[in-house]
Amino acid sequence: MKGIYFMMAAIGILTGCSTAQIQDYKNETPKLVLEDYLNGNLEAFGFFQDRSGLVVKRFKVLMKGTWKGNSGTLEEDFVYSDGTKSRRVWNLTKESDGKYVGTAGDVIGEAHGESAGNAFHWKYTLDLPVGTKTYHVQFDDWMYLMSDEVMLNKSKMSKFGFDLGEVTLSFYKKKM
Q1: Which residue(s) pair with 127 in the sheet?
Q2: What residues make up the domain containing 44?
Q3: Residues of the chain with pLDDT under 50
């Protein structure tokens, strides 16, 4: 019985810890306007680290974003270090107060995000293929605009609240 109380207290302490909020970045520059940055051709390089920190997959992404008013499409073509390829097409909608909603074929439901200052934060559940199976994995995704050309991205992946690993990406906006 003491073990259960100890575990509940530990969970309460861990979940009670403060985490970064999007408004923490409201005064940071350069200001990220998602529909401007994700408009045109982009390239990204990234990797997935498992929960031990081991890099288990590297990849490159070629992207093309187009916006009309508050609606955007982001086409992502992935090439992985093992030669496999995948494609994701995001349909994005800008809502009020820096909030965004996104959908894609492998996203379960909707992605919900918000931007402030140089940062964008969104969460979503991805139907992630692993071998011959797929798993519903939660993403907690943070993007930070570093310059007009460079944006950095860090995503934490989890399932049932357990950490699976992290994805790190560096985006480069190609000059037109």
Answers
A1: 136
A2: 25-173
A3: 4-15
Domain at 100, CATH number: 2.40.128.20
In the chain, the number of structural domains is 1
Neighbouring-strand partners of residue 159: 162
Helix (H) or strand (E) holding 33: none
21-72 tens-digit pLDDT: 999 999 999 999 999 999 999 999 999 999 999 999 999 999 999 999 999 9
Work out the end-to-end distance of the chain between its first and last CA atoms, rounded to an integer number of angstroms. Answer: 65
The reply to whether 11 falls in a domain is: no
Check: CB of residue 119 under 8 Å from CB of residue 142: yes
**Token digits of residue 137:** 């994995």
Q: Whole-angstrom Cα distance, residue 74 to residue 62? A: 10
Q: What is the DSSP string of 94-132?
A: E-GGGEEEEE-TTEEEEEEEEEETTEEEEEEEEEEEETT
Residue 7 lies in a domain: no
Q: Which residues contact 95 (CB under 8 A, 6 or more apart)?
A: 70, 101
Residue labelled with tokens 């918000």: 114
Does the residue 115 lie in any domain? yes
